[in-house]
């Protein structure tokens, strides 16, 4: 069960993209994006618009196998675009993706590069892709970033799903094993509304990674606001930063963060 409904995810794709567009309006798009080394704002925006068109193609065509993602990361030639052209391109991509998702419906079977196999995956993934890159752009122009509580909580939920994939525990040369006795992690999004699903337990003690929403003692506990917790998972914040409390085995936390982010590097 997700925190956000399918319809809300679809709507938030446009909302988050509009917030991103407004944040960079009037900015120097050749300015570097420190949290995305090698990219400037122009290239970051091209990447976001490219993900929209990638997802839209998959959903609209009901693709059953991988679709080329050239528009997603091949942004080297887009370092100095006209702001008005890029802004319109971003808006169009978000609208096209949202229209395709709504036309398909949540149960539509499509290829997904992660668990799910339905249009729900794309609605959720494209939403949180926009959220995190809005943070990147916001910091690049020297502003403060925040995101609504329920959107942040859903982003953590999505990460937990990726963070329990079988790929996490596959042996890798020179990489310490993730699973082992006593290895548990607890995450608590603080300051949330009463009744919010704001605590997660990651259990590494068995043969696979298992997570659940729970308030339980663990080998390491992390407390942070919903926004900061998302940014920590995506390595936009770090252990030791103001507002992020870590109690217990920080080395286990570092190991899990590194391994659970495998899908961002592949």
Automatic annotation (TrEMBL):
GO terms for molecular function: metal ion binding. Residues 150-254 form the MDMPI C-terminal domain. Residues 11-137 form the Mycothiol-dependent maleylpyruvate isomerase metal-binding domain. It comes from the Bacteria. It holds the Pfam family MDMPI_N. GO terms for cellular component: plasma membrane. Signal peptide: none annotated. This is Maleylpyruvate isomerase family mycothiol-dependent enzyme. It comes from Streptomyces echinoruber. The lineage of its organism: Bacteria, Bacillati, Actinomycetota, Actinomycetes, Kitasatosporales.
